[in-house]
Design a protein that fits this description.
The protein is an alpha/beta fold. The chain folds into 3 domains: 140 residues, Ubiquitin-like (UB roll); 137 residues, Alpha-Beta Plaits, CATH 3.30.70.20; 225 residues, Rossmann fold. Helices cover 24% and strands 21% of the residues. The protein has 15 helices and 25 strands. The chain has a 7-stranded mixed sheet, with helices on both faces. A hairpin with a 4-residue loop joins β14 and β15. The longest helix has 15 residues.
């Protein structure tokens, strides 16, 4: 693999890669605002300028400039090397690049910072971007001086509602045009553009339109300053209080890699952010996925129930074990869930095997709208995983489950998950004599259950999900289980033990070892992430 030298460090690169991308993959940050690995090159912020040393025997390209001489109190002619934007310059084998070790680069970056901050409001205490703002970070690194301009700054529109998800502050905007390129290149909807020039420039929405395509939150995510803010996250939390966990989006079968940002003080997840995985979602997530964190805290089943009345979890488990012990295996069915992880579904299959239950069905959230970018019509994160696990058991559809109920072949049911098809599918559950629901959210199963066991959400337990491409991906636990809920696989293990048929495994690692022959190989989150911005 070819290499170039960056500040005395050898950097490998793929042919065609730019200096900044190769440096980023090597874990080195070359300061930048407008560049993003997933977007076209704009090269308009000039923050990523670097100095490229000429090959031996070839003179450097020098530019004539005027520089201020503090002793003589006048501008004197000088020469400096021509700096190039590293976002635009292709890497070449043997190239020698100076970034942090060039005084010319330091001067240029400080000048860029000062220019950007001439009219920028100093409202950091109330800005949602505070704590993860590139203007703040680079001011400390490359400028660190007070503003010299004493004139009244240019004032622009503030708190402009661009659409149902985004608010825009033109005074904070540095016109990097990332948001414009996201709309045009990712969402294929060029609804944003730049109006005016120079210090009068601002981002505007096309006349008669609003920013409402399915990837609007990506425009906010790529914004390097506080110009674009998400209505969902706006003024909800301070980022320095948040912690991040590597997770997998459960909004659809694409299985986008994500970060779950939560506050450990109140154990609440405040937002999702995309986590780079070039094989799955590249650098992006859709709005539906990024807002799916709300379901972690909304519509939850947090307490156990017996015949609709609140009960302690041990009491509900004992009642479920009693019902299970009395049930005839030939008229008992289990319902797996494409919403839940492989671990949860494998535990339910293990329970079915232990009790000689041969009828295995599947429930799922109904299909929705998809596109050719990221959104998948299958709104379940683990359809492929359930299919692989249930193959040996002759997995049947929910339609067949309804037929079994009406034919009297499913008198006792142990169901995982919350979602069932609408209409007759939900109504048929009333004919089940004993329904044990292990659910995270309210739904038809919970409404008609004899016993309800509260299952933790995907954010409250480690789990494995298989996306539509057949890739098995691990999602890490972010917050502690809410209320009295527990991971479904733990509830099933306790249920099996109370019913006198304990599982061979007790710990998560033992469960995964037992599950390995039936499940696709898992991809750990660290191997799937290349370091997203």
């Amino acid at each position: 693999m070819p290499n170039f030298k960056l500040d005395d460090r050898e950097i490998p690169f793929e042919p065609g890669e730019t200096i900044i991308r190769a440096a980023q993959k090597a874990g080195i940050d070359i300061p930048h605002y407008c560049w993003h690995a997933g977007l076209s090159v704009a090269a308009n912020c000039r923050m990523c300028l670097v100095e490229i040393l000429p090959p031996p025997g070839r003179p450097a390209m020098l530019l004539d400039i005027l520089a201020w001489d503090a002793d003589k109190q006048e501008y004197l002619p000088q020469k400096k090397p021509k700096l190039v934007p590293s976002c635009q310059q292709a890497a070449a084998d043997g190239m020698v690049v100076k970034s942090q070790t060039s005084e010319h680069v330091d001067v240029a970056r400080a000048a860029v910072q000062e220019l950007l901050l001439l009219n920028h409001p100093v409202d950091c205490p109330i800005c949602d971007q505070a704590g993860e703002c590139r203007l703040q970070d680079y001011w400390l690194e490359h400028q660190g001086t007070k503003k010299r301009m004493r004139d009244e700054p240019v004032h622009k529109p503030k708190a402009v509602v661009f659409g149902p998800t985004i608010v825009y502050d033109a005074e904070r905007c540095i016109l990097c045009t990332r948001c414009v390129r996201v709309s045009e290149e990712l969402a294929k909807d060029p609804v944003l553009s730049v109006r005016e020039r120079g210090n009068l420039g601002e981002i505007v929405v096309a006349p008669g339109r609003q920013l409402d395509h399915p990837y609007t939150l990506m425009t906010e995510y790529v914004c390097p300053v506080g110009a674009l803010t998400s209505i969902d996250f706006r003024f909800k939390a301070r980022v320095w209080f948040l912690r991040s966990t590597r997770t997998v989006c459960t909004g659809c079968a694409t299985g986008c890699n994500s970060f779950s940002d939560f506050d450990p003080r109140n154990q609440k997840v405040y937002r999702y952010r995309p986590r780079e995985n070039l094989a799955v979602n590249k650098f992006w997530m859709c709005d539906d996925g990024m807002l799916d964190h709300r379901r972690i805290h909304e519509g939850r089943v947090l307490e156990a129930r017996i015949a609709g009345a609140a009960a302690a979890v041990p009491t509900a488990l004992a009642k479920a074990a009693e019902l299970l012990a009395k049930a005839d295996p030939s008229s008992t069915a289990v319902v797996l869930s494409a919403e839940h992880s492989n671990e949860d579904n494998f535990a339910l299959l293990s329970l079915a095997k232990a009790f000689g239950i041969s009828d295995v069905y599947q429930s799922a959230r109904p299909a929705g709208q998809g596109d050719d970018i990221l959104r998948h019509p299958d709104k379940n994160p683990n359809t492929a995983g359930v299919a692989a696990l249930g193959k040996a058991s002759g997995l049947k559809t929910f339609v067949e489950f309804v037929e079994a109920i009406r034919g009297g072949k499913a008198r006792t049911v142990i169901a995982l998950g919350s979602a069932t098809p609408t209409g007759g599918g939900a109504a048929a559950l009333s004919d089940v004599k004993n329904l044990i629901a292990i659910s995270t959210h309210e739904g038809p199963f919970v409404e008609r259950a004899s016993v309800v066991l509260p299952a933790s959400s995907w954010a409250e337990a480690d789990g494995t999900f298989v996306n539509a491409k057949g890739m098995s991906q691990e999602s890490e636990k972010a917050v502690t289980p809410q209320g009295s809920s527990k991971p479904a696989f733990r509830l099933l293990a306790e249920l099996a033990a109370l019913a006198g048929k304990p599982f061979a495994w007790k710990k998560l690692a033992e469960l995964r070892a037992a599950m390995a022959p039936a499940a696709p190989r898992s991809v750990p989150p660290e191997s799937a992430s290349l370091g997203a911005e």
